Structure formats: C-alpha cells, structure tokens
Amino acid sequence: MSLLVKICGLSTSETLDVALDAGADMVGFVFFPPSPRHLSLEAARTLGARVKDRALKVALTVDADDATIKAIVEALQPDILQLHGKETAARLRDIRQQFGRPVMKALAVESKADLASLPAYADAADRILFDARPPRGATRPGGLGAVFDWHVLEDLDLQLPFMVSGGLNVDNVSAAVRVTRAGGVDVSSGVEVTPGVKDPEMIRAFVRAARASEELSVR
User: Fold this and answer.
1) Alpha-carbon distance 176 to 147, whole Å?
2) Would you call 155 a catalytic residue per the annotation?
3) Per annotation, catalytic residue among 25, 131, 171, 199
C-alpha cells in the first residue's frame, strides 16, 4: 500500500490548492480555538467544498462534545474525524456510531509505556496517529513541532493502520518512514514559516520528500 501523506492545519484557499496539486492524500482542518490553525465553520464550509474529492478531508477536534462535532460535520463534510484529545475507546465508538465517519485516534508517545493503551482502541478506532507528547504546560496537544523517538514504534505489531506525526519536515520524513514503517505521515508546523502560516514551497517539498521515502522503503 502506498504511503499516505497528510497536510494538516490548512486554513487558506491558496495553501489548500497547493497541497492538493502536490498530491496530498489527506488534508486536515483544525477545530480547536487555542490553535493558531483553528478554523471557523464558515471557512471550513468554503475550503471543504474546494477539495472536490481530490483528497480525504480530515476534521481535527480535541475532546469536542456532540454539538460541536455535529456542526463541524455539517460544515466540512469530513471523510475522517481525527480525535486528538483524551477521548476513551467508548467515546470513539459513540462518535463513530453517531456520525457515521471513520475515526483516527491520536496518541501521544514518549516511551514504549505509552503504547499500553493501544489494545483498548483496537475495535474503536479505524486508524491511529502517533504524535509527540506535548511538553508540560502546553495549551494544545499537537502542532508544536516536537519529535518523539521513532524507535518506540520499531517492529510494532499493530493490526490497525497507523500514521506518524510530530515535528516532521522535509529533512526527517524519510528517516521517520524508514524506522517506523508507518503507512502515513502527517505534517503541520513542519511546512510553516510561522505558527499557522503554511508555506507553499515547503508543502511541495514535503510531499516530494515523503514520496521519495516511500520509494526508498520498497527497494
């Protein structure tokens, strides 16, 4: 299966078009007010319509309630709901049933001990996203440019498809894929000039580097 490339935290028509033209498989939209990438429902509706089935639309939320998720689903019509908070397996099952969308659970990783919760999500999540554990006192759980030790995922026996995020950029994405054998990579801050401001050429370069890492890994 080919490597999935996700560009997350898109907030303008220009950078969304760049991500789509570059061949991103997933485009992510953030619905979390503390994030510099937070989208309004109106903006989400406009950007979502622009995707036109060229990529999978991913809605990122953090411990959102049902009303919030309902509003996001109505505005964006996402293909996947990315849950980036402390949602339990029971909450995932409830969300998946209520909204009829696949769910991707983000898990913070720092050591092998952080993988202990994986079995609980086996029948609740459709995909796992491994991200770096945020530093103490952080106001949001991701998009911080932090990298975790990818060797924690080395030889991981996981039946669910999984992706890797956390501080990825054009220079390290190849190593991340080689070590983790992840089925996908997710970038946000690694293609920004300042928090929340994506750079078109950085997006293009990241997608090229990710595709190149895929070719190397199958040789």
Assistant:
1) 10
2) no
3) 131
